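Many introductory courses stop at the sequence. We go one step further.
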Amino acid sequence: MDISIPDAAATAAMESVLEEAQSVGTRKVEDDSGEVERFRHQVDEFTAKADELEQRVNEVGQFYSSKKHMNNVKAVSLKDKDGEKQIASIKKPQDPVRREAASAKRMQELMRLFSTILRQITQHKWAWPFMEPVDVEGLGLHDYYEVIDKPMDFGTIKNQMEAKDGSGYKNVREICTDVRLVFKNAMIYNDEKSDVHVMAKTLLARFEEKWLQLLPKVIEEETRRKEEEAEASSDLQIAQETATAKLVRDISNEVLEFPELIVIYCHLLCTNTLMHVFQGGFNGASGAHSSQPHSKREMRNSP
């Protein structure tokens, strides 16, 4: 069988053509590598976005799993274009700072009224034994602290009422408790027939009489404060549910953008596949180029 073998010049020309083709392919690969890198960056953004959405969905799930039902906020449909209007229509919570300031102002008024009562008691002619702390050492009352757990006097009460460092009384009931303690300590430690015991018992009765006159206002304020605290808790719940409903809507809108990102991702996969094929083709051509002449030389030199 006659086999035609190209001469050296033809072989050299073939090698030159293959080398030129490989050079053109390499430049094409280098030109496309920048575009591939951009696609990879977009895929990284896509992955990060998916992770962020997953975290936000988990937050929504945790919020609603802790609640059996929603009482204050109507569910916002993910497909409802008026969802934002529904959220905006929810009553805004009252400013907690302003609410607390108003409550503190009302409590100050009660404190002022209580100060009037306290002044009437302390100005009584029998009030002098209770104006200062008991002089335990001076009076030789060595067992006083064994009998009395918490000493109290009107001087200490006055200082607490005037304290500006936040350590003072928070409400009038705390003052009332200490006023009673002044008289009860005296009645506990002193004999029932002693002057101090009689004076304390008389002043305590007078104090309770005046306290009953102020008590309705105190109860009214306490009731109002409880209602405001309940409202504040409800406002906080409304704010959380509103924010969660908005988060659900935002997640839905962002999920709608994912198809475009998925197309980019698929484009990248296809591009990478073509790049591998393209590079593999030139590697194969190079291999064929190196092996074919060698094989022909062997054939030429074979007997």
